[in-house]
Amino acid sequence: MTAHLRERPKIAARPDPGPCPVIEGTRLVLRPHRLSDADAVAQSLGDYQVSRMLARVSAPYHRQDALDWLIQQSSGLNAGWTLAITTGDDVHIGCVGIELRHGQWHLGYWLNRFYWGRGYASEAAYAAMERFFRRMPDTVLHSGVFADNAGSLKLQKKLGFEITGCAQIYALARNSLVSHIETRITAGDLRKP
């Protein structure tokens, strides 16, 4: 007697960039976050000048908010990377993340306000994207900035992002809808700052 075995349909694997890397640059080290980063994250995101430019950060922002976020990031349930931006002596100064949301890869970043204007955000974003595109060269990365964030838009243009449109996004810290300039980039468009 011969049994006919039905082959189960194969489910396509979701493309994934792999585990969160450590990326060493000239001035910065990007590394996976640790729970011990909670105080630095809370200090940075507790600054309304930083949190107001981010869609998913509430104000006020406390240490427990940072711990909750860090636990979620280290759970392994989120596709993508959340990298701590640190100075050479391991001082946490910000974050750059690449995550899968609604079937598209998105880049996000923030920096402690006292480190603005030194080129750290563009250096960190470039390093993360360059490594990501080495692992996933055919991917389109989406991002964007609030319309009143000229510095971040300048950073994205310098890296090679193109503007694709504008939308209204709810910003938790502002408790309102805010105009958001939508952007995208491919591996071939990425430029070193």
Walk me through the structure:
With 193 residues, the protein is α+β, with helices and mostly antiparallel strands. The chain has a single domain, classed as Gcn5-related N-acetyltransferase (GNAT) (Aminopeptidase, 3-Layer(aba) Sandwich), CATH 3.40.630.30. It is 26% helix and 32% strand. It has five helices and eight strands, in the order E-E-H-H-H-E-E-E-H-E-H-E-E. The chain has an eight-stranded mixed sheet, with helices on both faces. A hairpin with a 4-residue loop joins strand 7 and strand 8. The N terminus is likely disordered.
Write a brief structural summary:
The protein has 193 residues and is α+β, with helices and mostly antiparallel strands. Helix content is 26%, strand content 32%.
User: What do we call the CATH homologous superfamily?
Assistant: Gcn5-related N-acetyltransferase (GNAT)
Strands across the major sheet, in which order?
1-2-3-4-5-6-8-7
> In oligomeric terms, what are we looking at?
single chain
Nearest-integer average pLDDT? 92
Let me know the number of strands: 8
Q: What string, H for helix and E for strand, traces the elements in order?
A: EEHHHEEEHEHEE
Globally, the shape reads globular
Q: Please name the CATH architecture.
A: 3-Layer(aba) Sandwich
Annotation field: number of helices = 5
Biggest β-sheet description: 8 strands, mixed
Helical content band:
25-40%
What tags apply to this protein structure?
eight-stranded mixed beta sheet, alpha+beta, disordered N terminus, globular, Aminopeptidase, 193 residues
Summarize the SSE layout with pairings.
Blueprint: E1 23-24, E2 28-32, H1 38-45, H2 48-51, H3 63-74, E3 80-87, E4 92-101, E5 104-111, H4 120-135, E6 140-146, H5 150-159, E7 162-171, E8 176-186
Parallel strand pairs: 5-6
Antiparallel strand pairs: 1-2, 2-3, 3-4, 4-5, 6-8, 7-8
Helix pairs in contact: 1-3
